[in-house]
Structures
1.
Amino acid sequence: MKFRGCIVFCLFLIYAYSQENKGELSGNFNLESQYYLEDTAIGAASVDDKLRTNAYMNINYRHNNFLFGFRYEAYLNTLVGIDKRYDGQGIPYKYVSYNKNLFSITVGSFYEQFGYGLTLRAYEEKLLGYDNAFEGVKINYKIINGINVKGLIAKQRNFFSIGDGIVRASDVEININELKEKWLQKPTNLTIGASFVSKYQQDKDPLYKLPENVACYGGRIQISSPKINVYSEYAYKINDPSADNNYIYKNGEAIVFYSSYTTNNWSIILNAKRTDNMSFRSDRNAKLLQQYINYIPSFVKSYTYFTLSEYPYSSVVLGEAGGGIEFLYSFPKETFLGGKYGTNISLQYNRYNDIKRNLPSDTNLVGIKGTYGYSSSLFSISDSTLFENIVLEINKKHNKNFKSNFIYQYTTYNFDALTGIVGHGYVYSHIFVYELIQKLNEVFSLKYNLEYLYTRQDAGNWLYVGSELSVSPKWFFAVNCAVNHNNPTISDKIKIYYLFSITHVKDATRICLNYGKQPSGILCIGGICRYLPAIYGFGISLSTTF
Amino acid sequence: MKASVYIAFIVIFISCDKIEPPFKETNNNQNIVDTNSFYNSQKILIEEFTGHRCGNCPRAHEKIEELKGIYSNKIIAVSIHAGFFAEPLPPNYPNDFRTNVGNELYSFFGVQSTPIGLINRKKINDTYLINYENWSVVISDIITQSPAFLINVTPSIINDSNTINAKVIIKVKTDSINNIRLSVFLTEDSIISSQTDYSHSPTLISNYVHNNVLRASFNGTWGTEITLINKSINDTVIRNFTLNVNSLWKLKNCKIVAFIYDPDIFYVYQVEEKKLFDK
């Protein structure tokens, strides 16, 4: 694997430098380094190697109709919280792509997505340690204007190697407006799509007859106009016993719906989703974040504020049903509530329940290995709440120097079901966030954060105070302090986590140094989450693009 | 071009296998080898990292029983209690099943989460650690191989039940391996103690039956080096090991597990198990 990567890399260099008509080189580099100190009081464990660094560099080279590229990655060793099986270094991502007119071929590594991804989505997210890149062949062909067809056959990345399963997939997307020139002028745009994905993995299990070829197919429709946007997608998967679903033979299905209506001053967003047994991986025995073929999106708005990211909602691929509604209104300027600069207000409500599971046809118990597991109709919902929240957000510019943001959120969080750690039950929390941005002059500006999370369950209450001084355009100094109190799981009355950071930005390069303590928590990006253990120590991050 | 696209669609579309009940294989019996020929067959060592406060670990224990149901005594398990979830936490979890050997193996193989295990210490995709869902797949690859060694273990109790003696006879069945290491462990079955089980309500089971619990090693974490230069096929090597008895162990439930592995890649060539008091 690493050897093959080096060959591609060498060929690429030879080709690039042998050309008189030099092409275009681009890329980026990122480095995250952490020196770990032990602090048993916050649960920050000692690390044998003390200093760990994760770095990667992407290089892309375009020449005429060809695009070459690779990514070198080093996990020396993997940062605490990321899967340790990444330990090592190599070139796991390398590709050559040829594009001409309406046709393109990619060999090597690539990412891809059909619709929202209910049948197929490969992408990477370094902060999560998520990378399900394909390695194989992909063809993209525009048959006529408005009809685009994709086909691929590939295996998937599994840390620094390639997984067992083979994925075969095709997708057709038709943009109705593009079919005829006169339809292009119409204000309403209609797009439909269909996809078919099949995976192959040998059955070596001595006990069960496992399907070696598992198919998943779906359809989607999008209608968009200046005011209204509607999207819906449905996917169906045949029997796919796996480690995720405890090797049951039930079919899976998922449906998502998203719509929005916007006028001058207000807009409304409605979304709904139901997922039933839709974990779809190219290796039926894979776990955690490895080798997902598909992706179930999350419609619950996520925030970067400390307290609001404490109890996030991620998609529950084995079973969830629910939706959300969000109402946004802008009070016009020069009104009582709008003030001189206007005021934005948003009110949203989300609720997700587990799906209802009835007895299957082949046994009198639910979820038993080697059976159909359970039965469930498309719109059946159980009484068990997974997640519920109501959020009020008010965003206001007070004058030319002051801007503020206020958020209140009430959350019901089914800790056992959402984290897989049984025994916590439901966590009910009230969260208040107030952020104030003050522009002192053309160079200096200040940002203050005051947050409070109140709950009688789990880790108790949190007070968070953050401040950041920006010295435009190059320097940022930040001091944050999180205080945990009334935590029923620890003997200490309060625990304090402080973090200092200095950031320097120059052109396309950003360097950040930090020192302090970070509490354990759950990091969610796009509905995929991972657990972050508590950390104490020095950190450095560096990123640049070229 | 259009035709090829349509053909690709059709080919992909037929690529699905709909399985109808019964979902269990009907030819399992062929996997179960006659117990009389055990001495001559390749056996499997499952070193399972576990802990009494690990709520998903009973799933791995069940997997071991399931595999023993398929492969009978060709499966030899060692349950290594180590890591955070194995720490005692009185009053509900008063017992400490951790051992120095187990702690060292846990650390050396880089265990991050439990349950997880080693299958003959085979390295797959740059890791020795294999999720219990994958054990059967790895085992099905190894178990049909011809054994490079055969092992015979003869236990005995000496010095008024204060010392266990293990006599290990190795029969060489290959001429391509010159150096091996031999490890001899003591395990214990039927220990009644508490265990967390996330699929049980309440999740704390106070009278859980712990099997295959690693108690000690006769010859350290990494065993004894044995050189096979000048040994021919069917030659034998005999080694004797002793271990002082700990009063916490119930000897009638104890077993000796002896295994041979490669000193460089750690791959376990063969393993054998014998009860201290075989009826």
2.
Amino acid sequence: MHPFAYQRASSEQAAVEAGNPGPGVRRPPTEAAAQFVAGGTNMSDYMRLNVTRPDVLIDINELSPSAYGHIEADSAGLRIGALVRMAEAEDHPVIRSDYPVIHDTLKLAATRQIRNMASLGGNVLQRTRCEYFREASFPCNKRQPGSGCSALDGFNRRHAVLGVSDACIATYPGDFAQALIALDARVEIMGPQRRRTIAFSELHRQPGGTPNVETGLAPGELITGYVVPAGPHTRRSRYVKTRDRESYQFALASAAIALDLDGATVKDVRIALGGVATVPWRAHEAEQLLVGQPLDETLARRAADAAFAQARTREHNGYKVPIGKETLVRALLETQAMDV
Amino acid sequence: MSAAAPEPQTNQGKPVPRVDARLKVTGAARYAADEPVNNLAYGLLVTSDIARGEVNTVDLEQARGVPGVIGILSYGDVAEIAPPEFGNASYTSLGPLHEKKIWHDGQIMALVVANTLEAAQEAAFKVTAEYDVQTPTASLDSDGAEVIEAKGNTERIKEYPAVGDFAAAFAAAPVTFEAEFRTPTQHHNPIELFSTTAVWSGEELTIYEPSQNVYGFRSAVAKQLKMDASKVRVLSHYVGGGFGSKGPMTPRTAIVALAARKFGRPIRCVVTRQQGFTTASYRAATRQQVKMGANRDGKITAFSHEGWELCSRVDNYVVGGIETTTKMYGYGAVASKVSIVKLDRQTPGYMRSPPELPYVFALETAMDEMAEKLGMDPVEFRRVNDTMKEPIKGKPFSSRAVMPCYDAAAKAFGWSSRNPAPKSMRDGDWLIGMGCATAIYPTNVAASTARVTLHADGRVRVQTATHEIGTGVRTVASQMAAEELGTEVEKVEIEVGDTMLPPAPVSGGSNSTASVCSTVLMACNQIKAKLFEAVVKAEGNPLQGKDPDELTLENGVVLAGDGASLPLGDAFAAAGKASIEEYAEFTPNAVPKDAVKKLYDGKTSMAEEDKREKAMFAFGAEFVEVRINARTHEIRVPRIVGAFAAGRIMNTRTAHSQLMGGLIWGISSALHEETEVDERNARYVNRDLAEYLMPVNADIKSVEVIMLPEVDTDVNPAGVKGLGELGNVGTNAAIANAVYHATGIRVRELPIRLEKLLAMS
């Protein structure tokens, strides 16, 4: 294992300072010499696989619990600190009752043991499970820019069909991010220079020609929390995750739905798709088709067709289009049928 | 009694809790790599990134510079050792450091040794290689595959089972069926990683390594190291699952032992999960062709089964499930054949039910398809073709309870509630399917030895170099000794997994319970004979002058037929002994006369089928319900029922657990497991337990195991058929048949994944 220094950050300032690569360093934060670690459930993997070889690990677990470790819920919405563990949010009574899609995405992710450890700040930054990314001896544009993409013509059953490029088809693996993007969450970020807040939908970057750039974060920037606005759609919300086995598997296709209905008519709808795209994926085209219309299977199917209209498949992932559509149809109809 | 510990029926032993249960659940039972060793250094393998080519240079300089590195073994450093010999004790003949040619992905190129595991990891990362890369051949259908017949090229297949004129019978059959089936590459993935710990003391070598075959390992590693096997000790006290992967040794062991000698340090090498996929064996992918002809009344008149099995370039390994499938039913004319397909992959090997799991999938799916063609219930179709004589040579089965198993399982499952029409059963969005299949496994028994000691206070010691691979052999062998010596299981101490003990066969082929328990039984009988002989001769005791053949030992008392008795302690006192130790050599029928000598040399001799007068198999019937989401096509298994008849059941708890585990394994083989291969470079892609799928707890709902009473005195003295590999046979076909019933789609290629059901919507 690559030797590394381990340090504990006692404050936000100390953390971002330690993470600051200094002026002039243009590498994306995933390639920085210093890496933040909280739950460590992914970082320890990357280090063992030599996917990431940091010189310094900055442990942020001791940062102010009041700012980082809490969930605040009021009539305006939620604020979820970045050090809240997945399991804590999953069990939170307000999230269960008023934001079920968040509860679902957490409950259906990983295993309870992992969820007890993993922090929500790190969760959305989980890197792809692309097998060619995780095995350091394969060419991979994300791991080694310019080396080529092994997945394009390789074994790509689990790869993305939306947001892909000729340089990368790696799937964004997470579930929680689909709830955040569906609910128009915002991300609080602390950096060496400043604090800022951005829309969650602005956080991730499609691969394009630079798949190594995964987010809009600058080196040294730290996610401190999420704000999820309240709304009439959050209670009727749901996540459907399709996979080969019942648990402990990343989505082959998933759909996060938040729905505001007037009778059968869709007043407002938010749709995010997981397992099929290179980034957390908001299906705006599908949403637009639904608004103002009475929701039934035919309309749901039209929305699903719209959501996947731009899909680009490879040899082994063609099924993700029909299964992705069916997952979305199922999610829409099951969300409609919810008793709220 | 409970579901996990069923009430014993006729010829079934008590559900004694595992004697090592507490050790296992508290972590006190040690894996080989957990054995404390002083002054340990850490070894890590470096493996190739290509599957075919030649290594030009391996650059070790950077790696040697990592602080803490002790040394590195690579090309040119292993002249003192011989390459392994392909066979039961070594899975491949490839000596990876003996030649710079690369024959498969992830081939060993170096062993890095360092003071810490972390330093070894860093150094291993810094080893780089330059290759002449050649385009490899990855899979059964790839260009560049060399296909050869198994007959004439393998030890295992000496002839293809056949009888009658298949071609004529098939041509004349009023109803025929013909299809191709495929099963994937699978890896055992035991939870305990592969490891070797080598410790030298002068000229003597001790190896701690998870093994299903300690004597085999001992002789194989001694041969490679060119030393006397008596100078080698192999220990494997507890194995965290082997499933065949730890049956033969791999090339790593001798390399680690050599490094330990060269560097003058005990070395522990734990193979990473990823490397485990390429440095040990696996289940070969197969392609199979089944042809079947039948009369309209359902009687099969013609059956042909041909298989093609993936193999390496360097060895000719074959499983050849036709030995079993051709004997399953009363077929009429039979033809069979097996070929091996040589590719740029490492040598495959045994994996739980090696021949039966893939080949019975094809047969039992074909049976379901034929039953449908005939318009028959699949259970009744099997009843019509049930036979008490195997069809190839006409030998009677020693016992065969296929239909009683079907009847018991069908009743428990509620088969009569099934609407036979495909796509006819539904619960909301979930399509329901029900299917069934036959389980079969040959009854193996091998020459074995054991030493048993009975003390005057009733304590017993059993010593035999068998292997605790999770099956519960410590428990059932202890039970056998306790029963025979009239004492409690708690008083039995058992030692296994050590070449200092008398040898036992490889723990494979489901032979261990039969072989070990038969041997322990024999040793116990010798002890009793000695004790009784001495007691009847001793003066002044109530048993003096009795016929020793009429004495028994029960509950700590020696009894005569007329009611005279003597407590065990007094019997020992009368005999003038404190303890009696007996060593037994068990040589079953149909094994070579020198089988025990061979066993000491590391070679197991199983009873040979040709030399047996009867056909010996354990049987079962399995019923499955699947639920498939009509929209998203996920396939789930809410319940499965298996009924089995396997001769004497030593312990209903451990047997139930094994059969249940088998059924779960069968679900896994049907729906989850596949090692995915990149066709371009013949490299495995999903080399971890997140992406190499197997069921998790949430996938397994109701699993019901029924053990039918069965007495078979022909198989071996213990009357045990062996069932470790029975439960997972046929399950994959039962599921495929249920999937068809639910959807109307026949999937003849495993695993059955949701994308194979796209046609249903």
3.
Amino acid sequence: MTKTHCAGYEKISRREFLGGGLFSAAGLMLGQSITPLPAWAPKIKLADQHVGPRGDTLVCVFLRGGADGLNIVVPHGDDEYYSQRPTIAIARPDDVSAENNQRTVDLNGFFGLHPALTPLKEIYTAGDMAFVQATGSPDETRSHFEAMDLMERGAIPGEHSGWLARHLATLDTQNDSALRAIAVGEMLPQSLSGQISATALKSVADYHLNGRNETAEQLHQMLQQLYAQQQNELLKAAAAQTFDSLEVMRKIGREPKKPAGRAYGDNNFGRAMQTVAQLIHADAGVEVACVDLGGWDTHVAQGGAEGLMARNLTNLAQGLAAFYEDLGELNSRVTVMVMSEFGRRIHENAGKGTDHGHGNMMMLMGGGVNGEQVHAQWPGLHPDLQEGPGDLVITTDYRDVLGEGLRKRMNNTAIDQVFSGYRIRENGLFL
Amino acid sequence: MGLASSALAASGCSVIGRELATQKLPAEIDLAASSAIPADPFWRLLNRAGYGPRPGDIAKAREMGVEQWLETQLHPDEIDDTPAELIISGLSVYNLDINSMLGYDSGDGYRDLIWATVARQIYSERQLYEAMVEFWSDHFTIYAKANQNIVFFKIADDRDVIRPNALGNFRDLLHASVRSPAMLIYLNNVRNFADHPNENYARELMELHTLGVFGGYDQEDVLNVARILSGLTVKRKGLRPWQTTFNNRHHDNDEKVVLDQTYPAGLGEQEISTLVDFLVDHPATADHIATKLVRRFIADDPPAELVAEVARVFRETNGEIRPMLRTIFLNLKFITAPPKLKRPVHYIVSAIRALNCSVRLSKGLHTHFQAMGQMPFMWPTPDGYPDVAEAWASNQLARWNFASAFSQNQINGVHFDLKELLELTEAESQADRLDLFYTLLLGQLPADLERQKLLDFVLAGDKPGEKERRLHDVIGLMIAGPEFQLI
């Protein structure tokens, strides 16, 4: 080795560089011993898993960017809503000055839905959908990233693992499917972190290992062997998870069947919901599925009944309604929860948009939802009733909603560990 | 004109640049040398302070020694980079002024911006510089599809903000970014007016660009920073180019207080510079930048002592970037830190470099960036692509399928020449051939047992041409395997 002038390099003995080769069982990686525990491991010490029957498949839809809940579950009975939002408010259900399809779709005389969500009204009336208003996490930063992180970790400061991961870790349903937890997309969300046995996938059709016919099978095995010997725990676990998922996928027909109800919509969210439905239909063992829908950070020109946000809501409603119709009787064993990291400012800004706020809405859908209700201890919108720079006060902690769902629908009795340090108050949102 | 257009990189300059770049194979690779020092520190250096070695790069670096290699890389202007520059000069949109670019379809903008970035990662000799360009492009992320035309402003941001300052001083970089039309458009400061402040940019300026989310500011500070930035907008006067201008009519000229510092009424535009300097000088900023640099180049979980050391250098040098990088790369931790997972772009580019591929921009490569989740400049939120393995590790299948397609030369626009590479050694036997590719891709020779396993696989091919096809298979296996993913 040519002499370098860097003492730092020379202090290291060559031995430390004896790397693991492709098939070396020794496989000692550079500096591997320095981090004995993988960074993603949960910090909370979890009690032994309890064994329980499998409950519903939980589908978590995360609206990333801070969706403006006040224009989704519209408080049309609060006059203050209209004075704070002169140009972007959604017209009252009986406002004859607005076109019929531009008005709020009334739910209970006080709250109603954005007109782009009209397809959800039918599910609500059928008793399979409920909304929560003025809910959220205790985040105070109004930072997207901090708020998402906090919400997905379960609002425990310093905790790195996600609430869904802890849910799965505390409940043994005797389900050994590799697809017990999935995320549709290129990456896993924070909520699943700490639970490495989760699979990120785009679609069933794409989830196959390509290769030449002559050697594909043999290379598959050789690759599996390489990862089995790998010392990097994160990579090893991710690979094992991928191989297991490939096995499951082999047994499922590549293309989803034609939806039983309306079309899902030719957009990422629609395709993602269809993939989840496909896996549920195939009984692939999915207990938790995460789907993201972005584009909610509407600081500027968010629109009202039409426009930027309305287009996103159209995709959301179409995807949810198509999923519900596609599942039919299976809805009795599926719960969908829709959430976002925070709501937006009550008053609109000069750019006809809204800034980061606090309280927000949530949506719940499925046969086990105590539907046809909007749960809200309404804090009011008047400036005297606002929080911080003009935000909706949170009167229902989002953990109360998730926790009740986990206990009643997913059969988890260890809610105190999923949301450690917080006592859940249930609100009769689930059956 | 879409991405698939054949007119893409067809300009003469680009072709010559590419040929120049790929013709630089060394006469010979000394396999004995790589066998002597398995996984040596230069392997890590060239893989972290750049996009991985091309054939012969390790030997060259070893001859220079670590410090000299680093010093050379820290002064990119002194490195001849004709091939890469020829490729860039052949781009049709990337080199235009902003007004001329705006006449093009935004698809042409994405194509040029992505290729200008990836081509330099592949072909430029200024590897550390390109790594820092990527670092700052993430730090000051601008989503190239945030609106119809923002990609052209991002190209200008790449040329005028990121690249001139990537190895310079953080203060200069931040001043430039605050006046970048792309940033002001992306984070809505163009809609930030005295009577109706828009907080978006103000918040991210503190949270993401300087202090960090726990940098000690509160919502009131966010609002006041928004007031200081009010009136800073992007305008076009007559036929002059679109540019950042300060509109005093929309500026809030009342007194403001940010983090206990008072900005007296009536300062006008001057208070923006004062604010930027204040943010650079704030100790939380040094900590934040140091943490991110150490995470990028050392470990996902940045060692606290080294972060403190780099932050101290930041403070003592007023934000000079080169001394921070020296502190990082010459620290013992650089060697002892656990392996880091390559991010997708790095993974792809390092495979291309290792086998000295000829590459032209094509949809083929884009498909793989997309499938792995890292299409350059397409991260939609202002925090930039994540820099920890946890974010990327789960998506293994997309990597394996890239490796498979790449090894068979099936990716449109990407091609390596097996025969040419074989001439790097007197690789007569299949075992020698395996050794060669093992060395090029993994920086060492295989253990005997492994060599035998791979050899058995290759030799089992008995149809005509099958042994060579199986050599391609093994190349795919090496790239898909864990060793190639970790650096």
